[in-house]
Amino acid sequence: MHLSLPQRALLVKLFYLNQSSAAAALREYRTCNNLRKGPISINALKNLIKKFEETGSLAVRPGRGRKPVSEQTASDVATALVESSHGPVAGSSSARGVARQLEMTPSTVLKVLRKVLKFYPYKISRLQELKPNDTATRLTFALTFLARMEVDDTWPWKILWGDEAHFYLNGDVNTQNCRIWASEHPQEIVQIPLHSPKLTVWCGFTADFIIGPFFFENITRTGPQTCTVTAERYRDMLTSFVIPQLQQRQCLDETIFMQDGAPPHIGLAVRNVLRQNFTEERVISRFFPVAWPARSPDLTPCDFFLWGYLKSKVYLGGVPNLMTLKDNISRTVMNIPSDMLRSAVENTVFRMQWVVQQDGGHIEGGRRLFAD
C-alpha cells in the first residue's frame, strides 16, 4: 500500500510515542483510522524508521515503488489465459505457463489475475463417473423417493441406510495441507506400506438410531483377522447382528433396509433373508421393486456423511494398532448425536430434490449440501 507523506509522518510519530514499538504504533494507527489490518507490515515500518533516522527525510525517491500494470499487459494476460485453457479439464490453465508464454514474471501474471481480473484459483472436485443411462435411473429413483414421501412423510425416517467402508491403520496424510515449519528443510518423509493393515466396517443408521459398527473378521490363533466381504458373510451379519438389533428395538416390522448394488449384497441367500424379514416392499436394492441407483455415493448418507465424519475423528492422536483403531471407531459411533443422524437423513431428502433439478446429474459440484 502506498503511503502519503502525512501518513508516514503519523506512523513515525506513533513509533516514538509508543517507546519505539513498531507493533504498538501500527495498532494505534489502525485504531485511529478504523482499519482491520495494514497499512504496512511491522518490518516495513522498521525500515521506514531506519531510513528516517539515516536521512532525516520521509519522502519517497523518484522512480521508487511498484509500477502500475498497463491495460495492454492485463489484456495480454486475459487473452493468453483463455487460449491456454485446455487439457483434461475444461477451463483449467497455468499462471506460470501464461508467464512463460508472455515472457513475464509469474508475480506480474498473478497480480493481473487477482487484482485486475479478480480471478482466483479453484480446486477441481472429483466425482463418481456416471454412465450414459445413470442419469435417467437416478432421476427415476429420486422422483419415486419424493412421491413416496407425498404418501407417507415419515418414510425416509424409517430407512436403515447401510454400507461398508475400509479403515486403514496408516490413515491418510494430506501433504497438501500438512506443513513443517523449520529454519531448514527437515527432509521429512512418510513411509506408506504397500498393503496397510485395515478394518472392514459395516454401519447402518436411521434418523433416530445407529446400528454398528460390525467388523468383518475371522478369529485366528493370533487374534482377529480382517476378511473379505462375501455374500455368505454379509448374510451372516444380517441374521446374527442387524436383524436381532432391530428386533430388540421392536422396529423390524417397519424398518426399510437400504443397500447399494455391491455383489455381496445381492447374492441369492442374502436376497432371501431380506425378503423373509423386510418383504419386497421394504428393501431398497438391486433385484427388488425399488432399486438403488448405481454409482450414486452422493445420495447415500453413509458415503457423503458417516464415513468422512468417522475418519476425521478416529485417527486423532495417532493409531498404533488395529485394536486401538477398532476401539476408536466403536467409541466414535456410540457418541454420534441423534440430531446429527437426523440432519444427515434430512440432507438426503434435499439431495433427492436437487437430483430432480439436475435431471439426474451430479449434485456435489453445485453447492455444499451438508455440513457437520
From TrEMBL:
Cross-referenced InterPro entries: DUF4817, RNaseH_sf
Record-annotated DUF4817 domain positions: 4-59
Biological source species: Hemiscolopendra marginata
GO molecular function, one term: nucleic acid binding
The name this protein goes by in its record: Transposable element tc3 transposase
Coiled coil ranges: none
